[in-house]
Design goal:
The protein has eight helices and seven strands; from the N terminus they run βααβββαβαβααβαα. The protein is α+β, with helices and mostly antiparallel strands. InterPro entries: Acyl_CoA_acyltransferase.
Length: 225
């Protein structure tokens, strides 16, 4: 494995030309995992860069390596760190953790009183979130901002979300509450994770299996009529 040195910093107008590469990699990564994500356009990613609400990772030679951005909901009461992506050739270097840590710090600086949440199907991301102080929670503990949930309409699993009345889906909800951390621990769905990656992996596999079987069963039932 080669040794790379990465520069991770807030994205600016100097990084706008990376936007299309970032969105393409987001889409390809979702397809490879067999799960869906809310699609984002290059224009949307550029807006986040110009607003100072994104973090980008580059090699010392200026090669794009990773990215993540901030979304605010409910008039800034909730914040999501979204679109975490690492270029395939730079995975296995711990870069995702470093990017996630930097976007978390940026979120705390810009929205110090906001609850920070995420929806993810990735066990590794869940592990990183857990190390930062997030806990798995029910969907009801997330923002009720309709604009956030509209973003799920472009996800391939949106029908599962709708069938569950927006209370569950393949993604696991995680929350960091700076004001009421003790209370957040009380509403956690699984207190036995103990930041163990294997348990996160087992959880995501089980949830995916259950949700996709429900979807298949529903489709078979509908095909009878």
């Amino acid at each position: 494995m080669e040794n790379y040195s990465f520069i991770i910093k807030p994205a600016t107008e100097k990084h706008l030309h990376y936007a299309e590469t970032i969105t393409n990699e987001m889409e390809q990564s979702a397809k490879a995992r067999g799960t869906g994500i809310a699609k984002r356009s290059p224009e949307y990613i550029k807006t986040k860069m110009l607003e100072g609400k994104a973090v980008i990772a580059l090699t010392e030679d200026g090669v794009w390596a990773g990215f993540c951005y901030i979304e605010a909901w409910g008039h800034g009461k909730f914040v999501a760190n979204s679109g975490l992506i690492v270029a395939p050739e730079f995975r296995k270097y711990g870069l995702a953790r470093r990017i996630k840590t930097e976007i978390f710090k940026l979120s705390r600086e810009k929205y110090p009183d906001a609850k920070i949440f995420g929806l993810t199907t990735g066990a590794a991301v869940m592990k990183i979130n857990s190390d930062l102080g997030y806990v798995p929670v029910a969907y009801a503990d997330l923002t009720d901002d309709e604009e956030f949930w509209k973003g799920c309409n472009s996800c391939v699993n949106v029908e599962i979300l709708k069938s569950k009345n927006r209370q569950n889906c393949l993604c696991t909800a995680m929350l960091y509450d700076p004001a009421r951390k003790a209370k957040t621990e009380e509403v956690a769905l699984r207190k036995d994770f103990k930041k163990n990656l294997k348990l996160f992996e087992r959880w995501t596999r089980l949830k995916k299996s259950i949700m996709l079987n429900i979807k298949k069963t529903k489709n078979k039932t509908l095909s009878l009529f």
